[in-house]
Structure prediction request, 149 residues.
Amino acid sequence: SELLDLYQEVILDHRKRPRNFRSMENADFQADGHNPLCGDRVTVFLKVHNGIIEDVSFQGEGCAISIASASLMTESLKGKSSQEAEGLFGKFHDLVTDESTHGEEGLSLGKLGVLAGVKAFPMRVKCATLAWHTLHAALAHENKMATTE
Ligand code: FES
Ligand code: FES
Prediction:
């Protein structure tokens, strides 16, 4: 469908040119995430000032979907408060676990940069959520070396 084509285009673009793909010195929050199904790993770095995410980046290795999803995630987080970031994580969680979400709604939320991977390849939920789980761990643990499965 046209919608799937659009999602795939977004994924390919972010896969080819991942945004904010770099490590960060003196990150305020940092976590390592790991997809147990394939062994791929991602690290998420955050700089937070007065509760606002001033910088966010990631590094790691993974499939196209995991990299694209991480890249899209970083784009959606800059300038958000850490509470808003947790809110986006919650929204993402609901969407990937609700199989009835399609079409219009999927598209507009896709613009938030959170859904492309899952909607194009529903069987790849673990790939698409890897960076988000890692972000959640980083924010939840408030220390420099959180880890998550
Ligand atoms: Fe919610 Fe994985 S996205 S538990
Ligand atoms: Fe490993 Fe997708 S196959 S993260």
In short: The chain has one domain: 2-142. Residues 92-93, 96, 129, 132-133 surround FE2/S2 (inorganic) cluster (ligand 1) (CB under 6 Å). The first strand starts at residue 29 and ends at 34. The beta strands are 29-34, 41-49, 52-61, 146-147.
